[in-house]
Specification:
- The complex is a heterodimer of chains A (312) and B (272).
- Chain A has 15 helices and two strands.
- With 312 residues, chain A is mainly alpha-helical.
- Chain A folds into two domains: 52 residues, no CATH class; 235 residues, MetI-like fold (Orthogonal Bundle), CATH 1.10.3720.
- In chain A, strands 1-2 form a two-stranded antiparallel sheet.
- In chain A, a hairpin with a 6-residue loop joins strand 1 and strand 2.
- In chain A, helix 5 packs across helix 12 and helix 14 runs antiparallel to helix 15.
- The longest helix of chain A is centred in the N-terminal third of the chain and has 34 residues.
- Chain B is mainly alpha-helical.
- Chain B is 75% helix and 0% strand.
- Chain B contains eleven helices and no strands.
- In chain B, helix 2 packs across helix 11, helix 6 packs across helix 8 and helix 8 packs antiparallel against helix 11.
- The chains are: A mainly alpha (312), B mainly alpha (272).
- At the A-B interface, helix 2, helix 3, helix 5, helix 6 and helix 7 of A face helix 1, helix 3, helix 4, helix 5 and helix 6 of B.
Chain lengths: 312, 272
C-alpha cells in the first residue's frame, strides 16, 4: 500500500505530470500546437493568401482586381521587361553569393584553424556584430561612402586614381553617374550586408574538418594546394552552400538596398513593392514573389541533399 | 614547409582575413564621423568642420523622432515576449521527441528567415486585406513575432539538445512533478539561452524595416523614419545621430547575448 503511494504524485500538478510521463507524445503534441498554429496560420496562411492572389488578374481599364481564376498574370510575368527584372535579380544574387563566398572563406578558415583563445572570441564577435547590427545603418554607411562627393571619390583623388574611377563609372550596364547610382554600388552593398551570413556557416563546416585529415593528406605527399582542393574544400562545401541560402535568398527579395544605392532599373523586390503600392496590381506583385519562392524551394532542396542543413 | 606549422598561419591568409574583417567594420566608422560634420546638405568628405550640435538638435528640436522610437520599443517588447513563449515551446517539443514529420516542422520554423522578408511582408499584407484587419501596433507585431520566434527557437533548440534527458528522468524519479522539474531542473539550464534569444529577437525587431513597411500602414517605426530620411533627407547629420543611437541599442543586446551563451557553444565547437 505504501509502495503504491510512492509511485504516484500528489495534487493536480502531480496527476497531470503522471499523464505526460506515461504519454510523452501527448506532451510533445501540446507543446508544439501553439507555435505550430502561429506559424501555420499566420505565416503559411498568409503565404497561401498571397499565392491565391497571383491567380487573379487586374482589369487594365478600371484598375480593379478581378477575383476569378486565371493564368494571365503569370503570362504577364514572362513578358519582356518583367523577364529582364527577374534575370537581372538572379544574376545579381549569383554574383553576390560567389563574391561573398570568396571573401568569407579566408576569414572563416583563419577563425576555424588558427585563431585560439581570445582571438577566436574576437573573430566570432567581429562577425556577429555586423551580422546583427542595424541593417539600415549599414546601408546608410555605404550611401556616405559611395556618394559622388563622398569617401571613395576623395580617396581616388588623393591617390590620383580619378581616371580609374571615371573609367569604371563609364562602363556600360554596371556604371552610372556615381557609385551610389550604379549596379556596381548596389553589388558592393549587397556583398557587405550579407557577408556575415556566409562566414558563420563556412566557419562551422571548417571547424568540423579533423586536423589529422589535413596532416594525413600532407603525409601522403599532397602539396597545400592539393590538400585544399581535395580535402578541405569538399568538406567545407556544405557550409558554403548553407551560407549561400542566405546570401542568395536575401538578395532576391531585397528592395531597400537597390532603392537607396542603385539606378532606376528595378529588381524583383522593388517590382513587388511598386506593384502592390502605387500601381495597386496585387496579382502581378504576388506572381513576382512566386519567383523567389520557387527558386528558393529548388535551392533548399538541393542544399538539403548536399548536407547543408547539418551546419546551420 | 609552410604547411607543417600548425600554429602559424600563411601570410596571404592572414592578410586576406584581416582585410575581410576591416571591410566588415570600417564602413560603420563613417556613420559616427558624419554625426559630427558641419555640412548638412551633402555627404562631403572629408567633413568641412566638426561639431556636436546635432546631438542637441536631435534631442531638442526634432519632435518627429520620439513617437517612432516609442512605437519601435513597444513592438519589439511585445514581439519578443510572444517569441519567447512560442519559440521555447517549439524548441522543447522538437528537440526531445522523434516523430513523423519532425524534419518538415523544423524546416517550417526556419522558413520565415530563409524566405526573403518581402515575401513575409506582402503575404501578411494581403492576408490583412482579405480579412479586413486595419493596420495597428498588432499588425506590425504579428509580422515581427513570426521571425522572432525563429531566433528564439534557434537559440533554445541548441541548448535543449545539450540538456541531458537523464536529469529530467532523475528529477521525476525523485518525486518532482513536471512543473517542479521545469522550474528547478530545466529552466536554470536553458535560462541564459532564452535570455540571449530574447535579446537577439529584440534587436532584430527594433531594427526591422522590410516586413514592417508592409504591415505598418501609416504608422512610423524608427527604421521607417530612418528610411524616409534616407530617401528625402532633411538634416543629414541628425539622421546620423539617430543611426548611432540605433546602432548602440542593437549592439548592447548582441554583446549581452554573446556573453550569456559564450561558454559551451564555443568550447564545444573547437577540438581541444
Amino acid at each position: 500500500m505504501t509502495v503504491a503511494l510512492q509511485e504516484t504524485r500528489r495534487g493536480i500538478g502531480g496527476t497531470i505530470s503522471d499523464v505526460f510521463f506515461a504519454r510523452p507524445q501527448l506532451l510533445t503534441f501540446l507543446l508544439l500546437t501553439p507555435p505550430l498554429l502561429w506559424i501555420g496560420v499566420v505565416y503559411i496562411g498568409s503565404l497561401f493568401a498571397l499565392l491565391l492572389q497571383s491567380f487573379y488578374s487586374l482589369d487594365d481599364f478600371s484598375g480593379v482586381v478581378i477575383h476569378e481564376f486565371t493564368l494571365s498574370t503569370y503570362q504577364q510575368l514572362f513578358e519582356g521587361s518583367n523577364v529582364q527584372i527577374i534575370l537581372r535579380t538572379v544574376t545579381m544574387a549569383a554574383l553576390v553569393t560567389i563574391t561573398s563566398a570568396v571573401i568569407a572563406f579566408p576569414i572563416a578558415y583563419y577563425a576555424a584553424r588558427y585563431a585560439r583563445g581570445w582571438k577566436k572570441a574576437l573573430f566570432y564577435l567581429a562577425v556577429m556584430m555586423p551580422l546583427w547590427s542595424s541593417y539600415l545603418v549599414k546601408v546608410y554607411a555605404w550611401k556616405l561612402i559611395l556618394a559622388k562627393e563622398g569617401v571613395i571619390t576623395w580617396f581616388a583623388g588623393a591617390l590620383h586614381l580619378n581616371w580609374l574611377l571615371n573609367g569604371i563609372l563609364g562602363l556600360p550596364v554596371i556604371g552610372g553617374p556615381s557609385l551610389s547610382f550604379s549596379y556596381l554600388g548596389t553589388y558592393f552593398v549587397f556583398v557587405y550586408i550579407w557577408l556575415p551570413y556566409m562566414i558563420l556557416p563556412t566557419q562551422a563546416a571548417l571547424e568540423r574538418v579533423p586536423a589529422n585529415f589535413i596532416e594525413a593528406s600532407a603525409d601522403l605527399g599532397a602539396d597545400p594546394g592539393q590538400t585544399f582542393r581535395t580535402v578541405i574544400f569538399p568538406l567545407a562545401l556544405p557550409g558554403i552552400v548553407a551560407g549561400s541560402i542566405f546570401t542568395f535568398s536575401l538578395t532576391l527579395g531585397d528592395y531597400i538596398i537597390p532603392q537607396i544605392v542603385g539606378n532606376s532599373r528595378l529588381m524583383i523586390g522593388q517590382a513587388v513593392y511598386t506593384l502592390q503600392g502605387t500601381a495597386g496590381n496585387i496579382p502581378l506583385a504576388a506572381a513576382f514573389t512566386v519567383v523567389p519562392m520557387v527558386i528558393m524551394a529548388l535551392y533548399l532542396w538541393m542544399a538539403k541533399r548536399m548536407g547543408a542543413f547539418d551546419v546551420l | 614547409m609552410s604547411s607543417n606549422g600548425k600554429s602559424t598561419s600563411p601570410l596571404g591568409l592572414r592578410i586576406s582575413a584581416t582585410a575581410g574583417l576591416l571591410f566588415l567594420h570600417l564602413p560603420l566608422f563613417f556613420i559616427f564621423l558624419y554625426a559630427f560634420t558641419t555640412e548638412e546638405k551633402s555627404f562631403e568628405f572629408p567633413p568641412p568642420g566638426l561639431t556636436t550640435k546635432w546631438f542637441g538638435v536631435a534631442w531638442n528640436s526634432r519632435p518627429d523622432i520620439w513617437p517612432p522610437l516609442y512605437l519601435s520599443l513597444e513592438v519589439a517588447a511585445i514581439a519578443t515576449a510572444l517569441a519567447l513563449v512560442f519559440g521555447t515551446l517549439a524548441a522543447a517539443a522538437l528537440s526531445r521527441a522523434k516523430f513523423f514529420g519532425r524534419e518538415t516542422i523544423s524546416l517550417l520554423f526556419v522558413l520565415p528567415i530563409a524566405l526573403p522578408g518581402i515575401i513575409t511582408g506582402i503575404a501578411l499584407r494581403s492576408a490583412f486585406d482579405i480579412m479586413n484587419i486595419p493596420f495597428s501596433v498588432w499588425t506590425i507585431m504579428l509580422g515581427h513575432a513570426t521571425f522572432c520566434i525563429v531566433v528564439v527557437y534557434n537559440n533554445a533548440v541548441a541548448r535543449f539538445r545539450r540538456l541531458s534527458g537523464n536529469l529530467v528522468e532523475a528529477s521525476m524519479d525523485l518525486g518532482a512533478d513536471g512543473f517542479q522539474t521545469f522550474r528547478h531542473v530545466i529552466l536554470p539550464q536553458i535560462g541564459t539561452a532564452l535570455l540571449a534569444g530574447g535579446m537577439l529577437a529584440f534587436a532584430l525587431s527594433f531594427d526591422e524595416v522590410i516586413v514592417t513597411t508592409f504591415t505598418a500602414g501609416q504608422q512610423t517605426t524608427l527604421p521607417i523614419w530612418m528610411l524616409s530620411e534616407l530617401i528625402r533627407p532633411r538634416q543629414r547629420p541628425v539622421t546620423n545621430v539617430v543611426a548611432v543611437f540605433v546602432f548602440i541599442v542593437t549592439l548592447l543586446p548582441i554583446l549581452a547575448a554573446y556573453y550569456l551563451t559564450r561558454e559551451g557553444e564555443h568550447t564545444g565547437g573547437t577540438s581541444k
